[in-house]
């Protein structure tokens, strides 16, 4: 049976593909450059989302009903096309191992600090591999199920934390000029927004591929709204300490105490973050296995889901020795790497197809 | 970690042995290659060889200077 991912499912997938790690990492990444002007940085995400929507729309118009790997082979031939697909596979593998490492580090630090990280990572990857084994439709349905739960519980947590909010944290505005604002926007523009382009690999499974650009724009608007709320509240409550904390959003949720009975609500937050992070890893792992399937013309990804999960598990700990390596990759390597891979390759394929089309 | 990876590989092989037997040779080769790669990564981590290998050095050398240039321009 042909998989059909609806527009709502696609939008929820896109939202958690970005916010899965974005909700954990972006406030701290922004705070490395600016504190007073941090509230306006998430607004730049709309520009990234607009660019991604344009690339996806052009790609879909040029290669209707084809995945990125299939389009590479059809457009550039077997040898050059396969070379590009291998480059995309390496990118996907590095992306999925980075996210898997962020997930295991978060779970180890916050939930089980005395348990070896590789054990927690193994449990995480077991769930991810099982989701991928069941298929994209199951991942999409779990996304649909998780989204309302997160969208109900997270705003409640933030509303409860507002009483510690201090507007003075944002003053003086533009004190250091525009340079820190532009540099702070780089990570979310070139890392997180470009992650949405993994949908190019699942175009053949979409119910309505012709609206892909519009769906990416809707998802970008939702992500911008949620990120703005999170970053503004984090800086307004935690202040300059945001730049020293690994998980600043967790600190604002931990600060909630109402009366003698309502406290330790961080459990809800951690449950939400772990669920969405698992969905993000599952989505990337699915795309990795699907690209592998296209490259070697395999019949299904059912065998790859488990053996690939094993490689992602050990690879996430082999490639990134500690979280400093992960942050170095996200801040210093990924922006240009992601731009050249996820924008450069689709644009190269579109240009080749337009120039040499019969 | 190396022992755990071998255990997982054996469990995986046992669980998927029928599918593996039915699969074309290409899929079987990829499956064994992936499991072999995963176990070798696990041994490299267990023997503390990963920091000396610097597996991401090539990608750092390619893209770090360009990203730093971008930060400088901004």
Automatic annotation (TrEMBL), chain A:
Stated family: Belongs to the amino acid-polyamine-organocation (APC) superfamily. Spore germination protein (SGP) (TC 2.A.3.9) family.
NCBIfam families associated with the record: 2A0309
UniProt name for this protein: Uncharacterized protein
InterPro entries on file: Spore_GerAB (IPR004761)
Gene Ontology biological process terms, A to Z: spore germination
Keywords: Germination, Membrane, Transmembrane, Transmembrane helix, Transport
Pfam families in the record: Spore_permease
Principal subcellular localisation of the protein: membrane
Alphabetical list of PANTHER family matching this protein: SPORE GERMINATION PROTEIN A2
Membrane disposition: Multi-pass membrane protein
Gene3D superfamilies cross-referenced by the UniProt entry: Amino acid/polyamine transporter I
Domain of life: Bacteria
Compartment annotation: Membrane
Transmembrane segments: 12-33, 39-59, 79-98, 118-136, 145-165, 185-204, 216-238, 268-289, 301-324, 336-356
GO-annotated cellular components: membrane
Keyword match GTP-binding: no
From TrEMBL, chain B:
Protein name per its UniProtKB record: Uncharacterized protein
Keywords: Membrane, Transmembrane, Transmembrane helix
Record bears the keyword Membrane: yes
Domain of life assignment: Bacteria
TM regions (residue ranges): 32-50
Organism from which the protein derives: Sulfoacidibacillus thermotolerans
